[in-house]
Specification:
The structure holds two protein chains of two kinds. By secondary structure, chain A is mainly alpha-helical. Chain A contains 24 helices and seven strands. Chain A has two domains: about 160 residues, Fumarate Reductase Iron-sulfur Protein, Chain B, domain 2 (Orthogonal Bundle); about 290 residues, no CATH class. In chain A, helix 3 packs across helix 10 and helix 4 crosses helix 10. By secondary structure, chain B is mainly α. In chain B, strands 1-2 form a two-stranded antiparallel ribbon. In chain B, helix 2 crosses helix 3. The longest helix of chain B is centred in the middle third of the chain and has 17 residues. The chains are: A mainly alpha, B mainly alpha. At the A-B interface, helix 11, helix 12 and helix 21 of A face helix 3 and helix 4 of B.
Chain lengths: ~525, ~110
């Protein structure tokens, strides 16, 4: 009888980049839940679609064009060369031509031409200019929530047109006229009210951390602390609240705690800034992005820390690395010897370079591992002091902690990485259809390395990626727990000074001496 | 959008989460479960009751790890894990179990 694997080999894994069959209008009915008045108000947006929405929307577009020169350049410079057409994971997964990046941009561009260009004002039909009607607004709402702002298309655009920025502008315009997205806006409201996306009050966080401390002590024999709101620490850790709630995120958090402990660096979480994620970016709102960022600054000042370290969160790192200083700086009160802010992977990598971390790789021998580059880290930030550090540092950590590491196909990783399918404010159940379809290119690349190298697991450094893969992996023949945190691998392999694991290793290598010590 | 239980209607949102958490009772839980194509058994009640007690104290749903650890204590280690929770609540323990328990939906990167 033929083995199951024979069939898989015979049929082969489809190419992740394969051009799909065109399905016009395939996704046109899909739209996320609209924000209710109580989700809009805390963000400063009208509760429902305003009466003069058309006029307001065009005014807002004009304001954004004046404010962001890049937006006008993007809307003016497209020559319809087609380089972007097959670069979007949502297009590859759905075949809907409106999910081609150029078509998505054109949803806004056509309206821009109508109201802001000479040709579009007088000869709209000649230049593909459209009136902003309710149908157009609804089309925006649908298709600008089928873009995860991952910027893969912009890598291939000869003009560097950034669809993410176009998408953000469209969402900002929609918020301004009262047509917000429930998922993002409800979450931002929770950050303002409670301090994090999940709405975890301090008491709940404390209780969870206590449980984790107990677990760590049981495992290692060491009192590894996980403090919150402790003044006078060296480091403020800003991490996605999912790290305090979900799997495998929480194992990553336990990894950070182990690394801090081993480094002898005191650290604390803040209940006021208990969220790294900044959904203000997803909705293109500078004001809301700034508001969320200022909480981090305030927490750092109030607690008197010397450094700010970010946990594993993709777009949080984009905001932190690229915008934090502008939004909430200057951070001249922090220790100038360290990057402000720093990524937890940089923190761990620096200790590795200094020879201060020991790993027992065999502890991860049950994993044959690959790494998913999270889009916002890959294409909108950097780590360390070398170009490409954001690709090499996480991989260096995985190679140091695991014996079996394999990259996926080169055209699907690093700057060409695919979005997980749930980024940019799409990680919500009402968009599950597009999430599953959008994950297809990444899942096919993963299926390829499973075929070629027997890869069993994939690690990531983004809370959204981890949650998204947990949900969609089973649709592609993987276990839901085939997705791991990078610092989960660190947590498994690290041999901490004075720990039970260290004693076990000593006993194995020199049984007599260990016995002598014990006596 | 509402559930109808014993002749009274109880409002819920687009996804089926109760609008007013104070309106919850066991009959409503059964009705929500029915709408989710789930039959309430002893194990599912165990989870739902734990969630409600936790929410009473902390005003939020527990971390998955907190939930699985608690279940491992009461139901044994073979049932105190994420996989078993997904068997009980295929749509996700945090979301489906919270809905039946009358808790708000956990939001964010989860």
């Amino acid at each position: 009888m033929a083995e199951m694997s024979d069939f898989l080999v015979d049929e082969g894994v489809p190419d992740p980049l394969e051009m799909p069959e065109m399905k016009r209008g395939a996704m046109e009915g899909l739209a996320p839940f609209v924000a209710k008045p109580e989700h809009q108000a805390p963000l400063g947006f009208p509760g429902a679609l305003v009466d003069d929405w058309q006029e307001k929307a065009i005014d807002k577009m004009g304001e954004l064009l004046g404010k962001y020169r890049s937006l006008q350049v993007y809307l003016d410079s497209c020559v319809k060369c087609g380089a972007c057409t097959d670069k979007c994971h949502y297009f590859l997964g759905t075949g809907d031509p409106k999910n081609m990046p150029v078509a998505r941009q054109d949803l806004l561009r056509s309206v821009y031409r109508r109201y802001f260009t000479f040709a579009g004002k007088y000869f709209p039909k000649l230049v593909g200019a459209r009136d902003l009607t309710k149908d157009v607004l609804d089309e925006w709402y649908s298709y600008f929530h089928q873009c995860s702002q991952c910027r893969r298309c912009s890598v291939y655009c000869p003009y560097g047109i950034d669809t993410a920025e176009v998408s953000m502008a469209a969402r900002e315009i929609m918020d301004t006229v009262g047509q917000g997205q429930k998922y993002c806006n409800e979450i931002i409201g929770k950050v303002y009210k409670i301090g994090n996306n999940l709405g975890l009050p301090k008491k709940a966080i404390e209780s969870t951390l206590e449980g984790l401390e107990e677990e760590l002590e049981e495992e290692t024999g060491l009192k590894i602390r996980m403090p919150i709101d402790e003044p006078g620490c060296e480091v403020l850790l800003v991490t996605p609240s999912a790290d305090l709630f979900a799997e495998p995120h929480i194992q990553g958090l336990m990894g950070y705690a182990k690394v801090f402990h081993e480094a002898g660096v005191s650290w604390t979480l803040s209940s006021y800034a208990s969220e790294a994620a900044n959904f203000g970016m997803f909705i293109g709102s500078y004001e809301n992005m700034r508001e969320v960022s200022l909480r981090i600054r305030k927490a750092a000042e109030d607690l008197g820390v010397k450094r700010i370290v970010f946990g594993e969160c993709g777009h949080a790192w984009r905001v932190a690395y690229s915008f934090l200083n502008t939004l909430a700086g200057p951070f001249d009160f922090l220790d100038p010897r360290y990057p402000a802010p720093q990524h937890i992977c940089e923190f761990t990598y620096d200790l590795m370079q200094a020879g201060r971390l020991r790993f027992d790789k065999s502890k991860n021998d049950q994993y044959r591992l690959t790494f998913h580059d999270s889009c916002n880290v890959a294409r909108a930030s950097r780590m360390g002091d070398m170009p490409g550090g954001q690709f090499e540092i996480p991989r260096a950590i995985l190679r140091a902690t695991c014996n079996h590491y394999f990259d996926m196909a080169p055209e699907t990783i690093k700057e060409s990485t695919f979005c997980c399918g749930g980024g940019g404010g799409l990680l919500t159940d009402d968009l599950m259809d597009i999430r599953i379809k959008g994950a297809q290119p990444r899942m096919r690349a993963l299926q390829q390395v499973r075929e070629d190298h027997g890869v069993t697991h994939m690690a990531a450094i983004c809370a959204i990626c981890k949650a998204q893969f947990t949900k969609v992996m089973p649709k592609y023949g993987f276990d839901m727990d085939a997705i791991l945190s990078v610092h989960q691998m660190v947590a498994n392999a690290i041999v901490m000074t004075g720990s039970i694991q260290e004693r076990e290793i000593k006993e194995k290598s020199e049984p007599a001496a260990a016995e002598g010590q014990a006596a | 959008m509402a559930y109808t239980v014993n002749g009274t209607t109880v409002e819920h949102d687009e996804e089926g989460y109760l609008t007013d958490l104070n309106e919850w009772n066991e009959d409503i839980a059964l009705e929500i479960a029915k709408a989710q194509n789930l039959e309430m058994n002893e194990e599912r009640w165990e989870v739902v009751n734990f969630l409600r007690n936790y929410y009473d104290e902390y005003q939020v749903a527990p971390a998955i790890r907190v939930l699985t650890k608690a279940l491992a204590k009461t139901m044994g280690p073979e049932k105190g894990n994420n996989k078993y929770l997904y068997e009980l609540f295929p749509y996700g323990p945090a979301k489906q179990a919270c809905m039946i328990a009358g808790l708000p939906k956990p939001t964010g990167c989860v």
